[in-house]
Specification:
It is a single chain. Helices cover 68% and strands 5% of the residues. It contains 11 helices and 3 strands, in the order H-E-H-H-E-E-H-H-H-H-H-H-H-H. The chain has helices at 2-27, 38-45, 49-61, 80-94, 97-101, 107-125, 129-145, 150-162, 168-171, 176-192, 196-208; strands at 35-36, 65-68, 72-75. Strands 1-3-2 form a 3-stranded antiparallel sheet. Helix 1 (2-27) packs across helix 7 (129-145), helix 6 runs antiparallel to helix 10 and helix 7 runs antiparallel to helix 8.
Amino acid sequence: MSAPMQVVESVSLREQVERALSSRIVSGEFHPGTVLTVPTLATEFGVSATPVREAMLNLARRGFLSPIRNRGFRVTEVSDDELRQLGEVRTLLEAPPMRALAGRIPDALAERLLALADAIVVAGRERRFQDYLEADTEFHLALLAQTGNAFLVDVVRDLRQQTRLIGLVHVSDHDGLTESALEHAELVRLLVAGDGDGAEALMRRHIGHVSGVWSGHDET
């Protein structure tokens, strides 16, 4: 009976470490080029080397890290052009559905989305980037799930996992992160009010932050 419990615990630890590491890479806490080692991270997380190594190998498969022989793993870089392309695809997929969803948001979903919107703002102000990114992802995927298109939700989830927001740490030092976080609540209000044009326009602007301030660039 003890073996299954150990497996479950090992998987859980690996998932926790992977989520924490991916958030720190996405947010820019671990900048591209940073070399990470299993022993150092295992000590930091207070766990054995095994879940850390498994998490890092999985992140390498996802393209976040590249192995360095006998040294550890280096945080990979995503070019500005790649970020722009990711943003363009996300805009094509996420903005148009806002018209169809306008006026069709159930009260229970609206309450859930507004609660997530508040959580995003608070996490951003407190620089809890893992909580910020997880709440942000949950918000967007819950909204898209209302379209009834599971394929759309899966594709957007995958695209978000490839995105880097290396300017997130820096933009949190001023009002930029809070301003963008507040857009979530405004989007819910537009959808509840049935303003499809406004909701689509706001979603386009919101996703535009991916290749803008969230990635360390000015927006025009």
